[in-house]
Amino acid sequence: MANEVIEKRNALLAKTVISNLEKRHFEAYYCPTTAEALQKALQLIPEGSSVGWGGSVTIREMGLTKAIHERNYTVIDRDLAKSPEETAELQRKCLTTDYFITSTNAMSEDGILVNIDGNGNRLAAICFGPKNVIVICGINKITQNLDAAISRARFTAAPINAGRFDIKTPCKVSGKCHNCTSPDCICSEVLITRTSRPANRVKVIIVGEDCGF
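Structure (tokenized):
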């Protein structure tokens, strides 16, 4: 019973958010499960396309990057880089792909995306470069408004993300944001995406499950 109530609420919330995203010229979809979201993402990418991605935990955990490798795509995989220099070069190449795949740190109910980065390569791709951007958003990342979305990106997602990297930031030590200016700061760039321009360039898949953090 509890699961049914949660699933119903998630579907209703997604319906509202999708309507708001479409008003902002995003192409938007709802998938109740990550398995369905994976298939939807693959359906959106024509065979032969060039595909790259950012540092998203979500797209890796749901098996999307693995599935991309198994199909007829030209893949630019930064995870295969053997040095920081090669990683940076592959990140630049991702800006010229047909499709760039990412998650989002937060999204408001009225359809605004909020993302935060250290180097800004993921944010750059969302803004400009790749012909299409596919954003996977777990239901856990939808917030009531823009202020709450920014707060989630800064004070929830960023301290958790810091734990993934070999860096020295106060948030990695304490688990909370200190609004630092550390050389290793992963909150150097904050991107607020209010609309998709051109229309439908950014395609958002809302997943009715918690994905990433």
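The chain has a mean pLDDT of 94. The chain has eight helices and ten strands.
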